[in-house]
Design brief:
The protein is α/β, with parallel strands linked by helices and 309 residues long. It contains 13 helices and 13 strands. It has a domain at 6-60 and 85-132 and 192-302: 3-Layer(aba) Sandwich (Rossmann fold), CATH 3.40.50. The structure holds adenosine-5'-triphosphate (ATP). Residues 101-293 form the Guanylate kinase-like domain.
Length: 309
């Protein structure tokens, strides 16, 4: 029988965009961040390429400049067509042994620890957790194998695939395309593994269906004081003049992380089923792993539209 609880209603009942009155109350910085959040970008390339190539941050800009008009138009249509209902009925759900595991989506501001938590989950049980293989048009390096680090395809094929909505997220860097396809997610799920995917929050909508039953985890930074303490020794990669070097987090990085997290929660909080505050890394990992175990083994709520495949 369908039921609706206040908590679930809170999660599922908000429209995707803040109301005008709400917009007026937002701090200017947060509102600018909200605007930025609407731009497609890609978090799924293997960290080495994404970061060594300076992809993560420059990606958003290069995509905007380089993508063909036709492709941009198609992408706009794809995003514009997705709406969430004001209310959603929910049903209790328990995974049957023959069913695929729910897709696990990890999201959060840059540098908060999404990749680190994903890496730890993978290491903790490589037979159980898996990740997708991205597509690229760049040249294959000597040590790389097709289908392991990347699927290597031609520019023509890639552009055709963009128009056919094959990619969940895609972008361009230094004249090469990179992208993550829906089929890669399906392949992992068909292997009876838990597919871990880190995404920008706007991508959640494209996966919000009975086929994927996404379990959305928001990785949130702690207070700025705790960020300063916990990230004292942590380093991030930074691009400088096309070169990449590691650097310590700056005060600006921390501020940015907190403002972006607030904006993400404001705009997409109704889709987050679990919020993990990443202060102590070991504790955050344990909390996340335990929660994923519960979702696999215990009865929990899902939108009733997901009940039938
Ligand atoms: N709780 C934590 N305490 C200390 N250091 C942390 C913690 N969480 C993550 N880190 C470190 O912070 C840095 C950034 O983490 P990570 O690469 O996972 O961020 P991210 O959210 O994936 O960001 P991006 O998508 O930009 O790569 C890494 O050096 C990581 O080891």
């Amino acid at each position: 029988m369908a039921r609706r609880t206040d908590e679930l209603q809170r999660r599922f009942n908000m429209s995707n965009r803040p109301k005008k009155a709400d917009e007026d109350q937002l701090q200017p910085t947060m509102w600018n961040t909200l605007r930025k959040l609407s731009r497609p970008t890609n978090k799924n390339f293997p960290t080495a390429d994404r970061r060594l190539a300076g992809l993560r941050r420059s990606f958003r800009l290069s995509r905007k400049d380089n993508m063909s008009q036709q492709v941009r138009q198609k992408m706009g249509e794809a995003h514009a067509g997705i709406h969430f209902p004001i209310y959603q009925e929910v049903l209790p759900h328990q995974r049957k042994p023959e069913e695929p595991y729910r897709l696990v989506l990890l999201t959060g501001p840059n540098g908060v620890g999404v990749s680190e938590l994903k890496r730890r989950l993978l290491l903790s049980d490589p037979e159980h957790f898996s990740v997708t293989v991205p597509y690229t048009t760049r040249e294959r390096k000597k040590q790389e194998r097709e289908g392991v680090e990347y699927h290597f395809v031609s520019k023509h094929t890639f552009e055709k695939d963009i128009l056919n909505h094959k990619f969940l997220e895609h972008g361009e860097h230094k004249g090469n395309y990179y992208g993550m396809s829906l089929d890669s997610v399906r392949r992992v799920m068909a292997e009876s593994k838990v597919c871990l995917l880190d995404v920008e929050p706007h991508t959640i909508a494209a996966l919000y269906s009975s086929e994927f039953k996404p379990y959305v985890v928001f990785v949130k930074p702690p207070s700025i004081e705790l960020l300063r303490l916990s990230r004292r020794k942590a380093k991030v990669l930074a691009s400088q003049n096309e070169q990449t070097a590691t650097k310590f987090f700056t005060e600006e990085d921390f501020q940015d992380m907190i403002t972006t997290a607030q904006a993400m929660e404001y705009k997409y909080g109704h889709l987050f089923e679990k919020v993990v505050i990443n202060d102590d890394l070991a504790m955050a990992f344990t909390e996340l792993r335990d929660e994923l175990t519960k979702i696999e083994t215990e009865t929990h709520w899902i939108p009733n539209t997901w009940a039938h495949v």
